[in-house]
Design goal:
mainly beta; 4-stranded antiparallel sheet; two-stranded antiparallel ribbon; 6 strands
Length: 70
C-alpha cells in the first residue's frame, strides 16, 4: 500500500502537515496548538502543541511529490 502527497504551498509559500483534533484552527500550522502535531516545510522542524519546534528533517515546498509505501 502506497500513499502519494503532492504539495502546494499556498499564498504565503508555507506548508505544514500533521495531525490534529476537531477543535484545530485551520488558520494555524499543525503543531502550534494543543492536541496537534506537525512537520513544517519551511524549516524542517517538528512541532507538538507549541510554537517551539525541534530539528527533524529536510525542508519541502510546492511541487514536491512524496511517496510512502508500507
Amino acid at each position: 500500500i502506497c500513499s502519494l502527497l503532492n504539495l502546494l504551498a499556498g499564498q504565503r509559500g508555507r506548508i505544514g502537515i500533521g495531525f490534529t483534533d476537531q477543535s484545530f484552527k485551520l488558520s494555524r500550522h499543525p503543531g502550534w496548538e494543543m492536541n496537534s502535531y506537525g512537520y513544517h516545510g519551511d524549516d524542517g522542524r517538528k512541532f507538538s502543541a507549541s510554537g517551539r519546534g525541534e530539528a527533524f528533517g529536510p525542508t519541502f515546498t510546492t511541487g514536491m511529490l512524496y511517496k510512502k509505501c508500507k
